[in-house]
Write a structure and sequence with these properties.
The structure holds 2 protein chains of 2 kinds. Chain A is α/β, with parallel strands linked by helices. Chain A contains 10 helices and 18 strands. In chain A, helix 3 packs across helix 4 and helix 6 (216-224) packs parallel to helix 10. By secondary structure, chain B is of the alpha/beta class. Chain B has a single domain, classed as HUPs (Rossmann fold, 3-Layer(aba) Sandwich), CATH 3.40.50. Chain B has helices spanning 58-73, 90-99, 117-128, 150-157, 214-222, 261-274, and strands at 22-26, 29-31, 37-40, 45-48, 54-56, 78-85, 103-108, 135-139, 162-172, 177-183, 189-195, 198-202, 226-229, 240-246, 255-256. In chain B, helix 2 crosses helix 5 (214-222). Classes of the chains: A alpha/beta, B alpha/beta.
Chain lengths: 323, 279
C-alpha cells in the first residue's frame, strides 16, 4: 500500500502558533515512512502564521481561511477540514491533545470513519502508547483502519528544530461557509492570574493527596520556610475548594518555572506536569511510590506528608539555627 | 458532505409554558484506586484484585450535579443516568438516583475487557438515538482511561453539536439554545452557543457535587433500572484495539531518598542547601 499522507492540524492561541503545533512535527516523523507531512491551518487572517510554519518546519502548509473560522468551532473546523481530508483514502490526522485537539479529533474520526486515539505520548512497532490511570500504566493501541486520527500529549515530543533548508510551499484557500448549530462567540482571558506564582523562586504545591482541607496549613508552613516562595495547587485540589483558583498550576491554570518546585500529594497527571515541568529542581512527596510524579521529580520522598512535612520543617529550623 | 448540519429529529416540547427538558447523563464506573489493579502477564491486560472497590468517575459526578441543577431550575426536567458495563456498574446509576436522577439505564456488557471509546459511544448512541434527549452530558474524561472522547463521539454519531470542558452553562429553553463557557488552556474561557439537542462534556470545578440523600438511596433501591443488552444494539466494528498494557518506560533520572523520615528530611535539606535553595 502507498504510504499514507500525514496531516497535522496547527493551532493558534491569541493569534500565535502554539508550541504544541511544532511538537506534532516530531510525532509525524516517528510514524511517517518517507512522506512529508502537511500542515493545515484554519483562521481568518492567517497568511503570516502559515508562512511562519512553513519557514520554521519546511513543511507544506495549507491555510483555510474564512470569517467564520476566526474563532475555533468544532463544526466549522470539521466542515472545512473535511474538504481536504476526505480526498485521501489512507491518512493520518494529527492534532495536539489540547482543548482544540480533543474537541475536534473524535468528530473528524467519525466523519472519516477513522480510528481515534487520543492523548498519545509515543509510537512504535505499529502501536500508539498512551498513559492511563494518571500515568501509572501505559496502554498500546493498534489502529485497524486506513485513516487514523491521533491527538498528541503536549510535552511528549520536543518541538522540531527550525529547519535551515527551504520553506515549504504555502497554499491559501477560501473555506466554504456553513450554518452550524453551534457558534463560538469569543474567548475571554482568565480572571485567575496570580503574579505571586510567576515571581516565586520556590513553589510548594498541593494535590488531592493532601487528603483534607486542614492540611493546606502544612503546605503554607512549608512554603514559609523559603524566601520568595508561593503556594500552588493542582486542579483537583482547587475543585475541592481547598485552594483558590489563582493557585492552580497546570494546563488550565498557570505555567510556572521556579528554581524549586515541591509537589505534595500530587499524582502527576500530564495536566499538572505540563504546567511545572520547567522548574529547575523538582521534589515530590507522595505516599504512592508508583505515582507518576516521581518520573519527573529530581528527588522523591515516599512518605505521608502529615508525618514528613512537620519533620522537614523542624529539621530545617534546627539546621538554620546551627549554621 | 457530512450531515451534521440539520439535527432535525429531536425537538423541544411544544406545550405552552412547559420548559422542562430531558437530560441524559452518561456515567462511568471506575476502580476506586489503581492500587488494586495489576497487569495480568498472561493476557497483557489489567486485572482487578478481588477486593477492588468501584465508584462513580469523579468527572461524571460534576456532570450529574450540573444536570440536577438544571432540573432544580427548570421544573418538569427529567434526568436519566446511563452506564455501560458488567453487572457491577448498576451501582453507578443507583448512586446517581440516590443523588436525584429520575431513571437509571444500564447497558449490560458482560465482557469486562478493553472497550474502545468508539465502541462505548456507539452503544450509547444506538441506545439513545430515538429517545429525544435535549441534553446529553458526561464528564470531560474518565479518570481511568483519560481519553476525552466519549461525549464528542456520541455527538458526532448522533449528528449533534457538542461543547467540551464546559465550566459554565445557561439554558435558554424558550430559544432551544444553551450558552456555555469552555475552559481552555491557561484558564481562558471560550463562549459557545449551541442549538439543542446538544452534548456537553463537563469540566470539574463547575459545581460541588452533592452526596446521595438517604431517602433517595432507599427509593432507588426499590426502583428497577432499565436493562439493555449490549448485544441487542447494532453497532459498527471497533476501529482500534488494545494490544497490551504495560508499566511506563522509566524516563526518570530522579533519586528516591531512603531512610527514616528524619534522615530523608536531613538529606533533602542538605541537597537544597547545596543548590542554594535554602540559606
Amino acid at each position: 500500500m502507498e504510504n499514507p499522507v500525514i496531516y497535522m492540524i496547527a493551532e493558534l492561541r491569541m493569534g500565535c502558533i502554539t508550541q504544541e503545533t511544532y511538537e506534532l512535527v516530531r510525532f509525524a516523523r516517528v510514524i511517517g515512512k518517507g512522506k512529508k507531512p502537511v500542515f493545515l491551518l484554519l483562521g481568518k487572517n492567517i497568511e503570516e502564521q502559515a508562512q511562519e510554519i512553513s519557514r520554521k518546519t519546511g513543511c507544506e502548509v495549507i491555510a483555510l481561511t474564512g470569517n467564520h473560522l476566526e474563532h475555533y468551532n468544532v463544526l466549522s473546523y470539521a466542515h472545512s477540514l473535511m474538504e481536504i481530508l476526505q480526498e485521501e483514502a489512507a491518512a493520518w490526522v494529527c492534532l495536539p491533545h489540547t482543548s482544540m485537539g480533543y474537541d475536534l479529533a473524535p468528530r473528524l474520526a467519525v466523519l472519516l470513519k477513522a480510528a481515534c486515539v487520543t492523548g498519545v505520548e509515543s509510537a512504535g512497532e505499529g502501536s500508539l502508547s498512551r498513559p492511563i490511570y494518571s500515568g501509572k500504566f501505559t496502554e498500546e493501541i493498534v489502529p485497524k483502519t486506513a485513516r487514523v486520527v491521533v491527538t498528541v500529549l503536549p510535552g511528549a515530543f520536543r518541538p522540531c528544530e527550525e529547519t535551515a533548508g527551504r520553506a515549504g510551499s504555502v497554499k491559501v484557500m477560501k473555506a466554504a461557509f456553513i450554518e452550524a448549530p453551534s457558534q463560538t462567540l469569543g474567548v475571554a482571558e482568565s480572571a485567575h492570574r496570580d503574579s505571586a506564582l510567576k515571581d516565586a523562586e520556590v513553589i510548594v504545591s498541593a494535590g488531592r493527596g493532601i487528603a483534607k482541607k486542614e492540611n493546606t496549613a502544612l503546605i503554607k508552613r512549608l512554603a514559609a520556610i523559603f524566601p520568595r516562595s508561593a503556594v500552588g495547587a493542582s486542579r483537583s485540589a482547587c475543585d475541592l475548594g481547598w485552594f483558590e483558583r489563582k493557585h492552580q498550576i497546570g494546563t488550565t491554570g498557570q505555567t510556572v518555572s521556579p528554581r524549586l518546585y515541591i509537589a505534595c500529594g500530587i499524582s502527576g497527571a500530564f495536566q499538572h506536569v505540563s504546567g511545572m515541568r520547567g522548574a529547575q529542581t523538582i521534589v515530590a512527596i507522595n505516599t504512592d511510590k508508583h505515582a507518576p510524579i516521581f518520573q519527573v521529580a529530581h528527588y522523591g520522598v515516599v512518605e505521608d506528608l502529615e508525618t514528613f512535612i512537620p519533620v522537614l520543617i523542624e529539621a530545617t529550623n534546627r539546621t538554620l539555627l546551627s549554621r | 458532505m457530512p450531515g451534521f448540519l440539520i439535527p432535525g429529529y429531536h425537538r423541544l416540547p411544544e406545550t405552552k409554558g412547559y420548559l422542562g427538558m430531558k437530560v441524559l447523563v452518561c456515567i462511568k464506573q471506575v476502580a476506586d484506586s489503581s492500587d488494586t489493579l495489576q497487569i495480568d502477564e498472561r493476557t497483557g491486560h489489567l486485572a482487578c484484585a478481588a477486593n477492588t472497590a468501584f465508584r462513580m468517575n469523579r468527572f461524571d459526578e460534576f456532570a450529574l450535579e450540573e444536570a440536577l441543577l438544571i432540573k432544580e431550575k427548570l421544573s418538569g426536567t427529567l434526568v436519566h443516568a446511563l452506564s455501560v458495563g458488567p453487572e457491577r456498574v448498576s451501582a453507578a446509576s443507583q448512586r446517581a438516583m440516590g443523588m436525584g436522577a429520575d431513571h437509571g439505564i444500564h447497558i449490560l456488557d458482560s465482557a469486562d475487557g478493553y472497550m474502545s471509546p468508539f465502541t462505548l459511544a456507539s452503544l450509547i448512541a444506538a441506545c439513545v438515538r430515538a429517545r429525544n434527549y435535549d441534553l446529553i452530558m458526561t464528564g470531560v474524561m474518565a479518570e481511568d482511561t483519560m481519553a476525552c472522547q466519549t461525549g464528542q463521539l456520541i455527538a458526532a454519531l448522533l449528528d449533534l453539536p457538542c461543547a467540551t470542558s464546559v465550566i459554565k452553562e445557561e439554558v435558554q429553553p424558550e430559544r432551544g439554545e444553551i450558552t456555555v463557557e469552555r475552559e481552555i488552556e491557561g484558564g481562558s474561557r471560550e463562549t459557545v452557543v449551541l442549538k439543542m439537542p446538544a452534548v456537553l462534556t463537563i469540566q470539574p470545578g463547575i459545581n460541588f457535587p452533592r452526596y446521595p440523600s438517604f431517602s433517595k438511596v432507599m427509593r432507588a433501591r426499590t426502583y428497577a433500572q432499565e436493562l439493555i443488552r449490549a448485544e441487542d444494539l447494532a453497532i459498527e466494528e471497533p476501529r482500534e484495539f488494545c494490544r497490551r498494557v504495560r508499566i511506563p518506560d522509566a524516563a526518570s533520572e530522579g533519586v528516591i531518598l531512603e531512610g527514616s523520615p528524619r534522615e530523608k528530611a536531613q538529606m533533602l535539606i542538605n541537597i537544597l542547601h547545596e543548590k542554594s535553595l535554602l540559606s
